[in-house]
């Protein structure tokens, strides 16, 4: 399977970039993990929208969701013009029922519930979830395909359930919104040092730092993570593709 970073900024996108969004390709299927601001434009650099099979959302904060409603309209237009033949499946939690109900859009988009107690198969890939520590309900994801594993923390403080979920991940996509000196200053996010600790404890094969802050020296994030994790570490980058397996 392959994962392509479409957006990696926290809060808002920098010029010509996007907030959280990742294209997962496995078994001939295209699955979007989160759909933040700017993601829809970036996605079309890699696949036409009619080839998108599903979306899996971690939570309903705008930097993970903002482009989803534009995607609904795109799906409608593509189906009405005959370019797309099937509805778009959208997977998300039901803890905010009002938001969940908005994900189903006529006959064009169909919402499917997920939870920390559930697992689903999307395009041949197995998804399981853990509740993160964040100001709103949020789910980390474990994705398995062909004997390989991708772990995606979504947004979270240090959380033992996320540690367990991401155990032995070949690729760990870990949020890293804070520098170590900011520990405790902002709820719901990891420091760079904690992201490195997470990678070390889960014995991850590779660590990608994402959900990056809009300030400071991002190379320092790598140095802070490397204090605990001795494997390969990279910063998320728009358009970067990582093959797993």
Overall tally of domains: 1
Count of DSSP E strands? 14
Helix content: 10-25%
Give the SSE string. EEEHEHHEHEEEEEHEHEHEE
Distance between the termini: 6 Å
Looking at the overall shape, the CATH architecture is 4-Layer Sandwich
Walkthrough of the structure:
The protein has seven helices and 14 strands. The protein has 245 residues and is α/β, with parallel strands linked by helices. The protein has a single domain, classed as Metallo-beta-lactamase, Chain A, CATH 3.60.15. The strands form two sheets. A seven-stranded mixed beta sheet has the order 6-5-4-3-2-1-14. Strands 7-8-9-10-11-12-13 form a seven-stranded mixed beta sheet. Helix 1 links the parallel strand 3 and strand 4 (54-56). The model has no long low-confidence stretch (mean pLDDT 98).
Notable traits:
globular, Metallo-beta-lactamase, Chain A, alpha/beta, seven-stranded mixed sheet
Secondary structure topology:
Elements: E1 2-7, E2 21-26, E3 29-33, H1 39-43, E4 54-56, H2 62-65, H3 68-80, E5 88-92, H4 97-103, E6 109-113, E7 119-122, E8 125-131, E9 139-145, E10 148-152, H5 160-165, E11 171-175, H6 192-202, E12 207-210, H7 218-226, E13 233-235, E14 241-243
Parallel strand pairs: 3-4, 4-5, 5-6, 10-11, 11-12, 12-13
Antiparallel strand pairs: 1-2, 1-14, 2-3, 7-8, 8-9, 9-10
Helix pairs in contact: 6-7
In a few lines, what is going on in this structure?
This protein is of the alpha/beta class and 245 residues long. The chain has seven helices and 14 strands. α6 packs across α7 (218-226).
